[in-house]
Amino acid sequence: MRVLGIETSCDETGVAVYDSRAGLLAHAVHSQVSLHAAFGGVVPELASRDHVRKLLPLLKTVMSQARTEAADLDGVAYTAGPGLIGALLVGAATARSLAWAWDMPAVAVHHMEGHLLAPMLEPEPPEFPFVALLVSGGHTQLVSVAGLGNYQLLGESLDDAAGEAFDKTAKLLGLAYPGGPALAALARAGDPHRFRFPRPMTNRPGLDFSFSGLKTFAINTLRTAGDDDQTRADIAIAFELAVVDTLVLKCRRALQQTGLNRLIIAGGVGANARLRAELDALGARQAARVHYPRPELCTDNGAMIAFAGCQRLLAGEREPAVFRAAPRWSMEELAALG
Ligand code: KG4
Ligand code: ZN
CA–CA separation, 279 vs 265, rounded Å? Predict the structure, then answer.
């Protein structure tokens, strides 16, 4: 089965063609980072308009790279939520219209299910069941995954998502949006021993997170220690260490609580090198296998949507010809497959 995937939930236009036998045939992402940079964050209306401009040209490029004609496709998958409503509607309307014109099914994909399944696009895909750590700009969740579509939320952030905390702290440090990767780069010049940030909610049981206090801690540290270059780098590394330690500790707890020995990491913050190294070390200590997508498939992309949609179509999922776009949508509401 061959499926076209379309991702437009936020500030990346992603398109891919996935084939269940041959694997990922082509994928491309158009990032809107430069468009939103001047505003310090994503401007929803600008995001929608840019998706309208970029989606069809990107689609043509990716189809030709994948040497795929409409007649070679068996379905069109699109991100139906969660995300920005206007941005989601661009993908939903385009996917639904193409599927109508090409006389094939379209399938609505949950963005976080896409992230969660992305490690399966890699050469040694994880087997079910496993624990998933989903860390993006909008979500921080620990999920127990029994099978496709069978998701139980173990814990989540009560305030800012991990990526959001990275972005807000980066902004304080004078870095451009989205600050996650820039903060990680600045941290490399930092002294890890100068400041120690708290590890929020680690001294009580449970798997929920809270990251908004770290931003306040960064503000106060900047105020008392000054804002020279070295201090900013020292704050960056102290912040990064606090987030990574907290995530790793909760992953260890989630493995212990579920008795599972496989962990997958997905979402934009999963591209963070320190997080990946520390989770590898945790895996070695706990005799657990740790799986990640390659960094470019950690951040938003069409490949994960094509893959998730393909699994749903293969399992026989069909939906009426409606546009689905849901800004809020819990993964626990998804239908389990097989
Ligand atoms: O999954 P994603 O591409 O979009 C959402 O669905 O939110 O995640 C984007 C988030 C941003 O907050 C970005 O700063 C963060 O992932 N991010 C990183 C890194 N790369 C991306 N955070 C820390 N270190 C990185 N290397
Ligand atoms: Zn995402």
Answer: 9
Evaluate: CB of 14 within 6 angstroms of ligand 1. Answer: no
Distances in Å between the Cα of 138 and the Cα atoms of 38, 114, 324 are 20, 14, 20
- Is 180 close to ligand 1, i.e. is its CB under 6 Å away? yes
Q: Strand runs (DSSP E) across 103-254, as ranges? A: 106-110, 130-135, 140-147, 150-156
Distance separating the N- and C-terminal Cα atoms of the chain: 17
pLDDT tens for each residue of 206-225: 999 999 999 999 999 999 99
- What is the percent of the chain where pLDDT is above 90? 96
Q: Tell me phi and psi for residue 70, to 5 degrees.
A: -50, -40
Q: Locate tokens 């639904």: which residue?
A: 96
CA 281 to CA 284: how far, in whole Å? 5
Residue ID of nearest Cα to ligand 1 atom 8:
268
Task: Give the per-residue pLDDT at 149.
Answer: 95
Give distance in angstroms: CA of 318 to centre of ligand 2: 24
Ligand found nearest the CA of 304: 2
Q: Does the C-beta of 302 come closer than 6 Å to ligand 1? A: no
Instruction: Please work out whether the CB of residue 169 comes within 6 Å of at least one atom of ligand 1.
Output: no
Apex 136 CA angle, 130 and 139, nearest 5: 80
Expressed in angstroms and rounded, the spacing between residue 298 Cα and the centre of ligand 1 is: 8
CA of 177 to the centre of ligand 1 (A): 11
3-state DSSP percent of the chain in helix, strand and coil, to 5: 45, 20, 35
Q: Structure pTM? A: 0.95
Give the ligand 1 atom nearest the CA of 83.
Answer: 6
- Other beta carbons within 10 Å of 45: 10
Dig out the tokens for 248 from the structure: 């790793």
- Nearest-ligand number for the alpha carbon of 236: 1
Distance (Å, whole) CA 299 – CA 31: 10
Backbone φ, ψ for residue 116 (5° rounding): -65, -35
Beta strands in 255-337 (DSSP E): 262-266, 289-291
